[in-house]
């Protein structure tokens, strides 16, 4: 149990997935869903699931019962009942899935509401993977129009790239054709790369219809998805849809330590020496002017800046709907900061409504224009670099694009928990980051890009009133307190994240927090944290050590950034010496890749090294393999 807690922050272990194969068809069944549908080793679909979305876009977990799985030489079948919501008041779904050696896969669902049930969406969800789909030609059969061929754009669509779908056919590799057809409702596609999902999602009930709607207990609904694979395909995997930029004099991004409120600075000062050792280049302070805040907290911000030597980036959230109100709010804030002796290096300001999500053509409430915001920032923070973008996720940036001529830089954040929370899906979000950065570079039009704050949990929820108050030991979508943030999982995930974005010349990367749900340092919380609660305040989560190494690498010359076989590898050069950061992004032991460092020594973090994760670590000779979610820091030995 302790090993699981150190890996993922929770003793809760998901049921082991089951692989089913017949002929050239292979699927993996896990918790009521199919994952990684493959034909002759080629991934043709990322997944097939049945999901219920609540009025707040929550995704309640299904209670699975009556599971029966049969396998024969020519076919297999899976059947079960999935229940969503409160028993007697929820939705019961009978699901049957059949696959055969010919290349046919059929999923049928019978949907019965037990009482009038409000939902934003209930039905099958089909995921197409990025490689072999993004940038490719597909054929779409429509319900209300003739069939058409179209190219799935490499640029991330802010809305629905394909609508009114009866069937969609794609060719992930030469000689292989995959037709996916739908019945029981009208389906359309969403570009989930917006939320860093590594997939395109096809779902039922068009988004332009009213929601939430009511499932009636007097109506039985049937849906089905049919997949037919044609051809044998050549014996290769799909090419990457987007290649990482060639490494050519890029610099490692500066690290910014997030402070979600000014009061977080005072919490950080409780562990002054530990925070000082992080040596962030910047503090990223979020100031929400729609809430009250003690002015004394800004004195703590000043002290934290002096302690760490960091400069300050401020992200202002204002409530004013007009220019006059905005001017008053920023004037008051600039006065408070001046009285506290705070010098602001970079500043952004966003309307409170920018923390909410809107469809691309949806009307937004009244709020000051970009030019009004930049004029106000120039007046009250004249020496600061002005940053535009969004305080929320890339989705919101893509749907409300900035006018680049107004700004000196662009920022956005991400969270991997919008649509799925299992370990595999969270780690898979790293695959989408090259797509996100490819599109972000287009939107930035040459402006420096800042990424974050990021983390596994959600700091805010653009799709509901707040992040989900999850069971603190559970993996849940849109959760505020994801347990993996305090495990090795988060340390490996951040290394994988940086490996994906560093080649795109990111200016600033912000993640973690001094303490709290996103903290690098353990302090008492109002929810249970097995093992860590027993160790007491001031213990160091695995991500603390990774953060120190990343912070120290800020501005260094990037030499290598790649991910192969679930191993992320970064190499950089600073002051004439090379260093490397390597992470295992899986639970399977992996070999350490060759880094070509001269006389390397290192620090190894894994689940067997509790003492090494809970106190300062000492460089030691490296091993030849990485255990589950282990991280290895290497540097060239100096005399």
The tally of helices reads 13
* Low-pLDDT runs: 613-617
- Percent of residues in helices comes to 10-25%
- Sheet of most strands: 16 strands, antiparallel
How far the N terminus sits from the C terminus, by CA atoms, comes to 42 Å
Coarse morphology? globular
Radius of gyration: 25 Å
Count of extended strands? 33
Beta-strand residue percentage = 25-35%
Q: Which structural class fits the helix and strand makeup?
A: alpha+beta
pLDDT averaged residue by residue: 94
How does this structure look, described?
The structure is a single chain. This protein is α+β, with helices and mostly antiparallel strands and 639 residues long. 19% of the residues lie in helices and 35% in strands. The chain is built from 13 helices and 33 strands. Helix 2 (263-269) crosses helix 4, helix 5 packs parallel to helix 6 (370-380) and helix 10 packs parallel to helix 12 (542-552). Residues 613-617 have low confidence and may be disordered.
Question: Would you summarize the structure shown here?
Answer:
With 639 residues, the protein is α+β, with helices and mostly antiparallel strands. It contains 13 helices and 33 strands. It is globular and about 70 Å long.
């Amino acid at each position: 149990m302790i090993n699981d807690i150190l890996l993922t922050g929770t003793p809760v272990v998901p049921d082991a997935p089951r692989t089913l194969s017949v002929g050239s068809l292979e699927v993996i069944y896990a918790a009521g869903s199919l994952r990684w549908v493959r034909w002759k080793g080629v991934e043709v679909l990322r997944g097939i699931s049945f999901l219920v979305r609540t009025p707040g876009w929550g995704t309640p977990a299904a209670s699975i019962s009556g599971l029966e799985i049969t396998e024969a030489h020519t076919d297999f079948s899976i059947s079960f009942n999935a229940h969503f919501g409160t028993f007697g008041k929820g939705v019961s779904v009978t699901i049957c899935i059949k696959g055969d050696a010919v290349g046919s896969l059929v999923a049928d669902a019978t949907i019965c509401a037990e009482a009038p049930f409000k939902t934003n969406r209930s039905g099958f969800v089909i995921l197409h993977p990025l490689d072999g789909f993004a940038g490719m030609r597909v054929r779409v059969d429509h319900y209300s129009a003739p069939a058409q061929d179209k190219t799935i754009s490499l640029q991330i669509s802010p809305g629905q790239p394909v609508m009114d779908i009866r069937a969609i056919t794609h060719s992930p590799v030469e000689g292989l054709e995959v037709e996916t057809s739908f019945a029981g409702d009208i389906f359309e596609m969403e570009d989930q790369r917006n939320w860093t999902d590594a997939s395109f999602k096809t779902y039922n009930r068009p988004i332009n219809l009213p929601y939430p709607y009511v499932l009636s207990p007097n109506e039985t609904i049937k849906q089905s998805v049919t997949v037919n694979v044609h051809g044998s395909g050549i014996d290769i995997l799909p090419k990457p849809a987007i290649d990482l930029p060639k490494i050519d004099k890029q610099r490692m991004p500066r690290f910014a330590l997030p402070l979600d409120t000014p009061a977080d600075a005072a919490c950080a000062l409780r562990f002054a020496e530990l925070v000082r050792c992080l040596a962030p280049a910047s503090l990223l302070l979020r100031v929400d002017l729609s809430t009250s805040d003690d002015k004394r907290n800004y004195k703590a911000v000043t002290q934290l800046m002096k302690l760490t030597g960091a400069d300050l980036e401020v992200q202002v959230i204002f409530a004013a709907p007009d220019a006059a109100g905005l001017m008053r709010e920023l004037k008051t804030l600039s006065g408070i900061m001046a009285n506290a002796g705070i010098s602001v290096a970079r500043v952004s300001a966003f309307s409170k409504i920018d923390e909410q999500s809107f469809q691309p053509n949806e009307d937004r409430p009244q709020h000051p224009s970009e030019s009004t915001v930049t004029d106000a920032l120039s007046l009250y923070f004249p020496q600061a670099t002005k940053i535009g973008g969004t305080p929320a996720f890339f989705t919101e940036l893509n749907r409300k694009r900035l006018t680049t001529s107004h700004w000196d830089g662009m920022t956005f954040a991400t969270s991997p928990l919008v649509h799925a929370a299992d370990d595999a899906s969270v780690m898979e979000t790293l695959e989408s980051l090259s797509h996100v950065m490819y599109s972000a570079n287009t939107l930035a039009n040459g402006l420096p890009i800042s990424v974050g704050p990021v983390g596994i949990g959600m700091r805010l929820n653009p799709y509901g009133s707040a992040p989900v108050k999850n069971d603190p030991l559970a993996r849940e979508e849109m959760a505020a307190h994801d347990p993996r943030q305090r495990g090795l999982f988060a340390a490996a995930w951040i290394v994988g994240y940086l490996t994906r974005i560093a080649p795109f010349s990111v200016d600033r990367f912000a993640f973690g927090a001094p303490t709290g749900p996103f903290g690098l340092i353990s302090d008492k919380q109002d929810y249970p944290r097995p093992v860590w609660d027993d160790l007491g305040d001031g213990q160091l989560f695995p991500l603390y050590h990774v953060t120190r190494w990343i912070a120290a690498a800020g501005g260094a010359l990037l030499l290598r950034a790649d991910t192969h076989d679930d191993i992320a590898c970064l190499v950089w050069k600073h002051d004439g010496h090379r260093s490397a950061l390597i992470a295992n992004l899986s639970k399977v032991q992996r070999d350490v890749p060759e880094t070509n460092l001269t006389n390397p020594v290192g620090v190894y973090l894994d689940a067997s090294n509790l003492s090494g994760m809970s106190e300062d670590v000492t460089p030691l000779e490296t091993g030849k393999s990485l255990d589950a979610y282990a991280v290895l820091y290497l540097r060239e030995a100096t005399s």
